[in-house]
Design brief:
With 251 residues, the chain is of the alpha/beta class. The protein has helices at residues 24-33, 49-58, 71-77, 91-100, 124-135, 159-170, 182-192, 203-213, 243-250; strands spanning 5-8, 15-16, 19-20, 37-42, 68-70, 84-88, 103-104, 113-116, 139-142, 148-151, 154-157, 175-176, 197-200, 216-220, 238-240.
Amino acid sequence: MSAVRWVLDLDGVVWLAGQPIPGSADAVARLKADGHDVVFLTNNSGPTKAEFAERLTNAGVGAEAEELVTSAQAAASLVAPGSTVLILGGAGLHEALEERGAVAVEAGDHPDAVVVGRTVKLDYDELAAANTAIRSGARFVATNTDATFPTPDGLVPGAGALIAFLVTASGHQPEVAGKPNPATASLVRERFGQPDVMVGDQPATDGRFAELVGASFALVLSGVTGRGDLPVSPTPKLVGDDLAEVVRRLG
């Protein structure tokens, strides 16, 4: 069998809030043992590359940071090196922008851009400062607009909830980098080539991304989307309970 390039979402596919989904590690190992290429693609911009690598190891998945593409990296790709940025997000977003050569500044320094991702440490004054910068003409860049984030205890607010706050306050819409937008597609193709299969738990992001890059979409029901949500659009090539079932049927 010829090698296939599999792109795997993380949250809801490999794990839930870092807790491994049963069978996911064995499924990844099977793909690699059969000679397939595996890329991990996430809209979670919070963790650093090292933190993601550690989480993958703890989940039993043998992977390197170089096999990972995040919405933080995609957002950073939209910012020119040397640009001044006000950053509202986690350590992973700060890392990606620093590696891009952007310069982190405060709102009063009149940043060229405001770059926003998911963070669990919300501060009203920071949100107000970001709003002021956007209203003053700074570019508004969002890592992603996922409304929710899957955890073992259910869905919690995602980056989209934070973005919605700033959209309402500023009256401006952001440039969105993460799945299913072109910045992420360009980054994946540039680093890894043409994807063949996209496995994810959200049709609006993973399914649309598959459409954008011309890959087959495999939907898993282990994250945001449940069986009661079916049918969905875009229509998946395959619906499976989890990654293990998808790999068993498609791999």
